[in-house]
Amino acid sequence: MIIGNKPALHTVLSPALLYQHELSNTVVVIIDVLRATSTIATALYNGARYIIPVDSVQKCIDTGMQTGAITAGEREGKVAEGLQHGNSPFEYSRDFISGKILVLTTTNGTKLLHAAAENGATTIITGSFPNLSAVCSFVLKQNKNVLLTCAGWKNRINIEDTLFAGAVIDKVKEHFDINCDSSKIAHSLYKEGEADLFGCIKSKNASHYIRLSAYGLEKDIRYCLTPDTANVLPMYMDGKLYADQHY
Amino acid sequence: MIIGNKPALHTVLSPALLYQHELSNTVVVIIDVLRATSTIATALYNGARYIIPVDSVQKCIDTGMQTGAITAGEREGKVAEGLQHGNSPFEYSRDFISGKILVLTTTNGTKLLHAAAENGATTIITGSFPNLSAVCSFVLKQNKNVLLTCAGWKNRINIEDTLFAGAVIDKVKEHFDINCDSSKIAHSLYKEGEADLFGCIKSKNASHYIRLSAYGLEKDIRYCLTPDTANVLPMYMDGKLYADQHY
């Protein structure tokens, strides 16, 4: 149903579907729940100066050398060769990360972030359960169209990113015109799972749950599905993610 | 969970995601619930000799002239100029269509069907609620990998095609290895809506529900969501859809 003067909200369940949407004058929310955007929120919440997301291990190494930043990234569940740290949010405590710069390489989330920037997005933030309320508060205040974009896995749709899109929709839906079936599907999935998000992705054998739990990372998964433990707003500007205070 | 020797089942929620999948040696199910594949099932169930799906009004006119077939297709809810009939399954009663050839132009479903054929699919069938049981029976007997492909709307994901994928999954899931989040999401949506599919898409204001009901086509929508009223198996071979007897 189209309702008057509300801005529009759409959801993109795979980066391969991003091209369908107008990105300018829109708040683009990058979602990569396990674990890129959860770790980004956590590191910024714990005082990181900023984060430079890069899309390859080599760029991570090079950028680390140029800036003196901490380098981080994993391949197949282990810290990638040549880097110092992994993708787990638990590595980025306040003691460790406060005041520092982090160069982070992730595959799906970073690729989507760069794709959004290259295709005309001017307002790009990252979203995850740890900073769910900050995301909702920001999109409500902006009064602009919103695009919830899920990183998925190599362009495949995944459950956890869809759940997060659904969680945002659940909190802001009265304030947007949502004529978008992907948003309705995401919201339905969230309503089904909201009482126990971990149980939801475990019982469904979500592909990413299988992958990460095989590496013994159930604790990471639980954290990444817990709302508002790192309630900060990561804003992307000039290749860097900063904690924005305006939410 | 990966289980032994079962074939794999995947779901593609938008044609733009088809490229991710191996199509050869796979049963590819084309899903365009409102209304292409529902009308295809109905016309074949009612005795049409075969159906030629084409992707433009002009091709429909040309093919009709060459073959003497009935031409059908709509644009913006009306019979397209130069064609004889529309896309409603109610136009294809046994009295009318038995023994005849139908050339049908639809946008999303036909495009996906051709894309599957051009990308190496050798076993292509069409699925809709009116022929749900025939589809399930066929994929169970084949013992091959299955790809449920949703036509959506201009590459956007839609609720009704996702619901149908979920309905198939609900009936065959024990016999396949389903390590595919899109399939899990489709199945969840179906379980939520199965008791009242029409109520489900109406209450969610599905985009296609809004579009068709604006044309006064609620009766079509109800029919297209009713299982097994035209239980036939449309099989695509050499550019034509036939009713296959082997299911």
Q: Write the element-wise H/E pattern of chain A from the N-terminal end onward.
A: EEHEHEEHEHEHEHHHHHEE
- What global shape of chain A is seen? globular
Low-confidence stretches of chain A: none
Query: Quick one: which chains have the greatest interface?
Result: A-B, 28 and 28 residues
Whole-Å distance between the termini of chain A? 28 Å
Name the CATH architecture of chain A.
Alpha-Beta Complex
- The class by helix and strand makeup of chain A works out as alpha/beta
Q: Count every beta strand of chain A, where a strand is a DSSP E run of 2 or more residues.
A: 10
Strand content of chain A: 15-25%
CATH class of chain A: Alpha Beta
Strand order of the largest sheet of chain A: 1-8-2-7-9-10
Helix content of chain A: 25-40%
Taking Cα atoms only, what radius of gyration of chain A do you get, to the nearest Å? 17 Å
**How many DSSP helices of chain A?**
10
Assembly form of the protein: homodimer
Mean of all residue-level pLDDT scores of chain A: 95
CATH superfamily of chain A: ComB-like
Number of structurally distinct domains of chain A: 1
Fold-level CATH name of chain A: putative 2-phosphosulfolactate phosphatase
Largest sheet of chain A: 6 strands, mixed
